[in-house]
Prior knowledge:
By secondary structure, the chain is mainly α. It folds into 2 domains: 7-100, Orthogonal Bundle (Cytochrome Bc1 Complex, Chain D, domain 2), CATH 1.10.760.10; 114-192, Cytochrome c-like domain (Cytochrome Bc1 Complex, Chain D, domain 2), CATH 1.10.760. Helix content is 56%, strand content 0%. The chain contains 11 helices and no strands. It has helices at residues 7-22, 30-35, 38-41, 60-72, 80-84, 89-100, 114-127, 129-133, 151-163, 170-177, 181-192. The model has no long low-confidence stretch (mean pLDDT 90). The protein binds heme C (HEC) (2 copies). Residues 9, 12-13, 16, 34, 36-37, 39-41, 52-53, 55, 63, 66-67, 77, 79-80, 83, 95, 144, 157 line the site of one heme C.
Amino acid sequence: MHGGLKWWMSGVVALAVILIGAMPSNAQSIEEKTQICAGCHGADGKPIDKTIPTIWGQQQGYIYIQLRDFKRGDRKSDIMQPIASAFERDEMLAIADYFSKKPWPDLGQPRAPKDVSERALKANASVGCTGCHLDHFQGDGTVPRLAGMGRDYLTKTIADFRSHARGNNPGMSDLMNATSPDDLAALEEYLSGL
Ligand code: HEC
Ligand code: HEC
């Protein structure tokens, strides 16, 4: 998606912005405000495209920070920036709370084979991912859950941290650049299969 929006996604964004703008936001319930999210993040929590992240069951603090960063432009996304810009801080917190309470969906991704898991666990032992992302990569607060996240999204966002295309957390960019591409590939396969 670096090469521009897919046609249908730009259509959904345009529609979303119209819908959000059509009503005074304080007259909309949280269900109404989040209806448009299902168009991409999935009505059952399973994203409709493999490069779109899972937000059902994600940590509340983390969802809030991403919406804030999209709105500020600190995390660049032609898709999410106009959507997040429609919300004020209290709405973002309520939306984050709403999605964090949904069950994390099972995307049915295969478990990594033994050699891949071993490489991923070794990389984790040296970098200490679970020092922040916690045991079983469940995350907490403003640190995201990674377990069971879509593999194509993990690959994309880790590449974006490395290139600083995702520049909202320089610490994660430094860590991803300090980890070898082969270790990261193993971690992506391992995490998606958890
Ligand atoms: C047109 C499709 C589309 C719609 C509609 C949409 N999103 Fe997104 N969302 C995306 C894509 C694509 C990304 C990944 C952006 C990137 O990393 O470049 C994303 C990323 C996110 C993230 C970051 C998740 C993470 O793991 O970092 C959050 C949070 C999010 N969206 C929340 C929402 C909410 C809440 C709504 C509804 C108000 C919504 N999105 C509507 C496509 C969409
Ligand atoms: C010092 C604490 C820390 C360590 C160590 C760490 N992370 Fe993170 N990670 C974070 C934080 C905080 C974020 C959220 C950044 C943001 O707000 O955008 C994050 C975000 C991520 C994301 C983005 C998730 C999403 O939904 O977009 C991925 C992927 C990730 N980390 C993978 C890893 C891997 C793999 C390792 C180990 C090689 C690792 N992290 C080590 C703190 C850490």
